[in-house]
């Protein structure tokens, strides 16, 4: 038997597609070799190419693979009770089925643990060999000890970890303002991007006590315990703390509130390096979803909570006008029907109808992020690619390897959507998703398109009509990240120089 591999000029060609990047929509054929985008050529010109495989996109849009830089997997109880219902294996399987080829997940540092490097090492063990898509890590800082701060330089220089997340709420994670300042100062010195969860934890705890004293403990009161003003206040404070440390760059994560959005926009207009993220839950859910019959509202308990219809519109506007650099899923899954680790851990003899204070905060969404927003028709396609792929790749130091279609440079990470003639009207159901979570908050929603193929480094890892998930959990690679390249963020800091307390 002849076992010699037949060699081809290209490994994969995608022909008759309409390529969408953050800057352009144009028909090109794409040739892929050795896992990279090799060539873009006039449409149809590669349909007879010498390639191991040719996919005819049939006129469909082809976008860079999704880059989702806000994903929680295999995390312990940090947001109330419970622990993640998705592992690296199941969460990244879900990612590729929804067109996402790279995630950045969190390496959580426990409050009792002084080291960030330990948190990173522990998380590498969970992810290695268990990832269907490429991945990086942010460190979630629970304890900004001297040791932790001193390790930030190593994370950037040796480990390819160039961002951290800090919290202004949650008992297990909340930092005081002085701790936030210490983190920002070190982040400035080491060129780390600081992601901030901006909600005033002390105020929401007080409001929660007030609600509980009136026995208002059902899931819907999660929303009353975290009104928009808490987010606006904390966002304003985060921006003030950043400006105090000589305008150190920060990213406000999962922004839900128009007041916070306006404050961010003002800071950006003033030239401050303030970046912002929003998520599908603030575009597609409202607080009414927390008011579902019985305990069902717990399925939509996340923080900040979904707001009202007018807020949704303001968030869409913020995406369109560039206030938000990135649209992430904040995939933070907990099973619903699970009294050990899921949403129902808060149902006890004392609180048979549940107690919102103890509901694990977070919802799944890594697989639905791209189809929901692509199908919405509310963003130009170039903007869709910008906020869901190119923007996150730039913000988190992955560009142009990720988030682009640059020949010779970019990994061949792609999504081929369905062409108009074959567009499936998909009704989202949990049964069709690939996570290990027992529900989706988007059950029953109609979406007009879905990734037909997902390609990761030149390999077809998702073929919706022929086998579904074709990738393997050993194929995803850890990606070392560089500094952020969005908006000359660190060049500006270089020009401004270091923080000088005497100059305040
Ligand atoms: N913040 C997150 O980023 N994810 C889930 C819970 C939370 O509050
Ligand atoms: Zn958060
Ligand atoms: Zn999150």
UniProtKB/TrEMBL annotation:
For this record, the Gene Ontology CC terms, alphabetical, are:
cytoplasm
CDD domains in the cross-refs? D-HYD
Q: At what positions is N6-carboxylysine found? A: 165
- Fetch the InterPro entries from UniProt: Amidohydro-rel, Hydantoinase/dihydroPyrase, Metal-dep_hydrolase_composite, Metal_Hydrolase, Metallo-dep_Hydrolases_sf
Extract one GO molecular function annotation from the record.
hydrolase activity, acting on carbon-nitrogen (but not peptide) bonds
Q: Which residues form the Amidohydrolase-related domain?
A: 61-202, 313-461
Modification after translation, per record: Carbamylation allows a single lysine to coordinate two divalent metal cations.
Give the coiled coil ranges: none
Entry's family note = Belongs to the metallo-dependent hydrolases superfamily. Hydantoinase/dihydropyrimidinase family.
PANTHER family reported in the protein's UniProt record: AMIDOHYDROLASE-RELATED DOMAIN-CONTAINING PROTEIN, HYDRANTOINASE/DIHYDROPYRIMIDINASE FAMILY MEMBER
Q: What is this protein called?
A: Amidohydrolase-related domain-containing protein
